Amino acid sequence: MYSKSIMTPPTGSCMADLFVGLIAEDMHKLAAGKVREFSLASKWCPSLDSSYDHSTLIYEAHYVYRARERLRRVALVPLRRALKLPEVFISAHAWESVRYTRVASVAMKNYTDLFLKHDADRFNTYLADVKSGKKRIATGALLPHEIIASLENDSGGEVVDLQW
């Protein structure tokens, strides 16, 4: 709602994007020796802890971005890799590394078509082992109506039957 109004002042994030773009252009111009073509962004960009920074929160926006990126890189990626989450292997196209016994019920429901498309032999072997009782399939987070709704998907019918 507010983003569509022309009367709404720009947010700190929007202003931060504006300053980042202008200062990046100015840095390229500086490297090319085009000092006379600079914008005044570096003059007006708020300094850390200035009163202008307190109203725009530009440094806070940058800090949050950096902290979130560091959290992802330092903590979440290694933890997710250690958990052997299927999403890690799916995004890396490392289908042979997916451990189907570790796939959660909702992920199994969501990724059945991908497993059948990219790793059909191993996935069908896993399903046969589940049928014979050698292995188990996760069902914990799926509610009965979600399992029944999945029956509309022809390719995942066998998985849905095993989850039931």
UniProtKB/TrEMBL annotation:
Full protein name: DUF2828 domain-containing protein
Highest taxon above the source species: Eukaryota
Cross-referenced Pfam families: DUF2828 (PF11443)
DUF2828 domain: residues covered: 60-164
Family matches, as InterPro entries: DUF2828 (IPR058580), UCP015417_vWA (IPR011205)
